[in-house]
Amino acid sequence: MRPQVDRKSSGGGSQRLAVGVARRLEQEIKDRGWPIGEVLGSETALRERLGISRSILREAVRLLENSQAAQMRQGPGGGLVVSVPDPRSSIRGLVISLEYLGATVDQLVYARSLFERMAIDRIIDTLTERGVQELRRSAAGDGGPSIDFHVTVGELSGNPLLELFIDVLSRLTAAYTQRAYAITDDRSGELEHAARLHSELADAIIAGDKYLAHQKMLKHLEDTTTWLRMYVAPLPGERTATRPMDPDPGERPREKKLAEHVAGWIHDDIVEEGRQIGEVVGSEAYFVEKYGVSRSVFREAIRILEYYRVAQMRRGPGGGLVVLAPDPLATVETIALYLDYRGVTIENIRAVRDELELGVLTCVMRSGPVAADALRADDRRSSLHLRDRIADLSGDPVLGLFRSVLALVWKDCGGPDSSDVCGPGDGPSGDRDELDALVDAVVSGDAELASFRLRAHLHAHQEL
């Protein structure tokens, strides 16, 4: 599965160098097995070892601190300390990217149905007494908003990828719901209905009834879709100019550094004021006065926004903070780092890969007839190439972005490469025959046969 993002760093030379240094230190942490609390070196020692300036090292450290892979500890015995990575900023970044790409309510809910069905099956097969208690607690709303129930379902699946994807989609749903609440006062009935379905779904899972659990889950998502469609844009094919809402409504991180607070506030202001891509929203002096912070804190906040491609500072006459089109590159890389810490396995990836590719195929089959030349344009065909073409035809930004995450995590896990093509005279003839048969089923509109052939092909080939 080919990544849909370019791994080349953007920005100026110093920024690119800082990103490269951060990636090198991240790799060192991964190679050493995430030794939490261990000091990688003092600032002086790291500068000498890496052969870089103080400013480049400090910028690289800021990037590591943003993902919380490492923190710079001051004082005697201090230095760059390995820490537990925090996925929240990256989850927020994925939500921003999906909204900017124009993810519709239907696409969002369809992806949720794929991943939550997988999670339910896994939970039923592995549920413990503690899991029963957690399900009932979250279904009852004891842990907070209803988003917690779906996050709990992801956590109990035991698959870090499922947990992450469900968390992202639940937060995007919550953000869309907040937008709907801004339009309608019909809150209590919807909340009570969702709470009742959560309770019924939890009971079905605890009872081990997969069929009933699937039905309850689908009912819940169908009701969510129907309600959100009445209030939430974008419509299919539309793209928002910038993110029109906050994926963590009303949430202000309390424990993070001041610069991260400021970065979040600037981003929220861009959203709330309806700023457009390319628009200059203010100068450094304007923001320093507005938020009552020092220039150094503001500049560190800008580095965070620039890293996630939310906004960029333009120098010179007419300059200021410019709104950018969100780029998922940094977010996807940070997510991959977090998943490495969580110990994601090749088996975890394959399980999600199979359902994701089948979900993409279903999108294509539902969209109508597929022209033969759309899949047969290249006489030399590989499994990867064909699945990429099917993904392109689906036009689904949610599944497309998650394919990118899987591809990068697979590469980081050392999974086998699937770049070999199956041309007329290359590779086992059976491989080429399998792909030709899959194309035949897709072009003929036989959804059931196409799904069968893709599933059989995926099971026969272990590469991504």
TrEMBL record:
Residues 15-84, 256-326 form the HTH gntR-type domain. GO terms for molecular function: DNA binding; DNA-binding transcription factor activity. PROSITE patterns: HTH_GNTR. The keyword Nucleotidyltransferase does not apply. The keyword ATP-binding does not apply. InterPro entries: GntR_C, TF_FadR/GntR_C, Tscrpt_reg_HTH_GntR, WH-like_DNA-bd_sf, WH_DNA-bd_sf. Keywords: DNA-binding, Transcription, Transcription regulation. This is HTH-type transcriptional regulator LutR. It comes from Gordonia insulae.
